[in-house]
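Model the whole thing, not chain by chain.
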Amino acid sequence: MSNKHRHLLKGIEKADSVTWNPHKIMGILLQCSCFLTKHEGVLYECNRMSAGYVFQPDKCYDSLYDVGDKTIQCGRHVDVFKLWLSWKARGDAGFTEHVDKCIALAQYMYKKLQETKGFKIVYEEPQFTNVCFWYIPSWLEKLAHDKEKQNHLLGKLAPAIKEEMVRRGTLMMTYVPLDRNVNFFRMVISNPAAERADIDFAIELIGSIGDQIELSALSNGF
Ligand SMILES: *Cc1c(COP(=O)(O)O)cnc(C)c1O
């Protein structure tokens, strides 16, 4: 969708098949997942039930486009219709603009986190529109002499900050423990209405809640 970032998919033409979830960054309502294959007819060969009382091939149009007998399911939503409608409404240009904007916002956030005291990036360079980070308030920074305790508390901090944000009704952001890292926040930018001001808001909110959390509230077990 983006000329600017198409290099991220370099080599995709070598893949035999590709899955793509337009219900992610493209903002199509759940669910909308595409399975793209180079092998015309393979889905029909794999999945067809060829129930003669449902599917007739002798139609006034090319029945190649009928999906009913190509999927494991039969009587289900035609989820791709939502993608088609959205594409018609927004056009190639609209999709391009959206993807470029989300990636630009992720880069903005990444840069801002690097410049803001207390924030630490998990992975160098944002991967697509995922920005992964910890917030380490000064009260936690002070425990640097006890790495084990500091890490333990850091892993509890993201869920505690998230809980407070949910209670206040201000922001939803996921946290993840991954690759032996304790819970970090994972911001995924896909909302077409998001602006730089929303990123600033998120960073400030997480910082201020993190600063206010009581050490004793996280210290169970230590
Ligand atoms: C969306 C998502 C999934 C789930 O994929 P679906 O095909 O939408 O069910 C798994 N992992 C990550 C990191 C995701 O963002």
